[in-house]
Specification:
The protein is an alpha/beta fold and 410 residues long. The protein has three domains: 66 residues, Archaeosine Trna-guanine Transglycosylase, Chain: A, domain 4 (Roll); 119 residues, RNA methyltransferase domain (HRMD) like (Transcription Regulator spoIIAA, 2-Layer Sandwich); 191 residues, Vaccinia Virus protein VP39 (Rossmann fold, 3-Layer(aba) Sandwich). The protein has eleven helices and 20 strands. Strands 16-15-14-17-18-20-19 form a seven-stranded mixed beta sheet, sandwiched between helices. It has a six-stranded mixed beta sheet with strand order 2-6-5-4-1-3. It is globular, with a radius of gyration of 23 Å. The N and C termini lie far apart (78 Å).
Length: 410
């Protein structure tokens, strides 16, 4: 078959030249034939010059995930091996022996569009967001095994590889490629969560059925900051999920930590994570409470409860652009409710993982809500993506957090 060739609109040409990794279906003006998922598509400009090459996905509005733009290159096994090495090299020196859970490949921002690879001890979890990778799974496994043989310290020496699929891919993967979400592609079978280390703490990751790849690795740096702020404080961890912030706070010397989440499954995971770390004296001595409730409702009804450190880390409140206004309103209300429960001298951490809400918009609504409380406060810091979760284009920038201190009145 002839190579798949595309021509695009003038606007799309400019966007691709600027380095953006997505080409949308409505930007394609000409296509020489129908394309298959995962096929290499070559994009030409209006003067018939090479513009870019990427992975074709006929099932997605993002029709091509750009791999390379500029001068033509041969994209073969050696090219892929070099690109994997570059992604891993960005993580070199970030972690010591106390951490064996991190992101190895962060999608487009590492040059692997629509693909995430996370490590949890001896288990690698491959999360796919485009059908373009499904016919290339064999190549991916070979590349990872080649990297293993090179004795890279960033990948486990004898890994298990688990496949995770975004919901929109699961039916196609099953019917056309005989692959399923949670399938073990390499290594021994698994029936229980994987236990891994993060800054010396033990956590479980439900790599088969858990959210994302099984754990929220992206909040690691904020968890470390909470540990440094928690001494002698009563801590509320709202939207607590599996208790990551709470464990760090407990090790940091918190008097008590309260996990608040609507999911009993999440709270059970938090309880198990605390059990995994009872050998640490500070964790064993910290009172750990769990409340199953909707966070908004609980804060509204329990404003008499007072805490010295409150963590607000909700799931995405805007999964599409049309939901942004409602999300900003919800972030403001959430901050207002939390401040009613914050003692003088307390600290608030507010975080957002909504890509459709920019950092400036989020910080502004939190600051505005804090100002409307008529309490004096100072801003300790704002944070973004950790180094193993780089974000190189606008749509990839989802994580942001702000720390506010509310001193006692003089």
């Amino acid at each position: 078959m002839p190579r798949l060739r595309l021509r695009v609109t003038a606007t799309a040409e400019s966007i691709v030249r600027s380095g953006h990794p997505w080409l949308f279906a409505d930007s394609v003006k000409e296509q020489n034939r129908a394309g298959e998922p995962g096929e290499l598509a070559v994009i030409y400009d209006r003067r018939d010059r090479f513009l870019a090459a990427g992975l074709f996905d006929p099932h997605s509005p993002i029709r091509v995930r750009i791999l390379h733009a500029g001068k033509p290159q041969t994209i073969n096994r050696e090219w892929w091996r070099a690109r994997l090495g570059q992604a891993l090299a960005r993580r070199r020196g970030l972690f010591d022996g106390q951490t064996n859970g991190w992101r190895c490949i962060n999608g487009e921002s590492d040059g692997w569009p629509g693909l995430v690879l996370d490590r949890y001890d001896d288990t690698l979890v491959l999360k796919l967001y485009t059908a373009a990778w499904l016919p290339r799974l064999g190549e991916l496994i070979d590349l990872l095994q080649d990297e293993n043989r090179s004795r890279s310290k960033l990948l486990p020496s004898a890994p298990r590889l688990v496949l995770r699929l975004s919901r929109n891919l699961q039916q196609l993967a099953q019917t056309q490629f005989h692959k399923s979400d949670g399938q073990v592609l390499l290594g021994p079978p698994i029936t229980a969560p994987v236990i891994f280390l993060e800054t010396g703490l033990r956590f479980e990751a439900d790599v088969l059925r858990g959210q994302k790849t099984g754990f929220f690795l992206d909040q690691r740096e904020n968890r470390r900051r909470i540990e440094a702020l928690a001494r002698s404080r009563r801590v509320l961890n709202a939207f607590s999920f599996s208790g990551g912030f709470s464990l760090y706070a407990a090790r940091g010397g918190a008097r008590s930590v309260t996990d608040l989440d609507i999911s009993s499954h999440a709270l059970q995971s938090a309880a198990r994570n605390f059990s995994l770390n009872q050998s640490h004296p500070a964790i064993a001595g910290c009172r750990h409470e769990m409340v199953q409730a909707d966070t908004f409702e609980w804060l509204e009804q329990n404003h008499a409860e007072k805490f010295d450190l409150i963590i607000l880390d909700p799931p995405s409140l805007a999964k599409r652009e049309s939901e942004k206004a409602g999300a900003l309103s919800a972030y403001g209300r959430l901050t207002t409710l939390a401040l009613r429960c914050l003692r003088p001298g307390g600290i608030l951490l507010a975080a957002s993982c909504s890509a459709h809400v920019t950092a400036d918009e989020f910080f502004q609504i939190v600051r505005q809500s804090a100002a409307q409380s008529r309490r004096q406060f100072s801003e300790l810091q704002t944070t973004g993506h950790p180094p193993d979760h780089p974000a190189t284009f606008k749509e990839a920038e989802y994580l942001k957090a702000i720390y506010l201190n509310f001193p006692k009145p003089r």
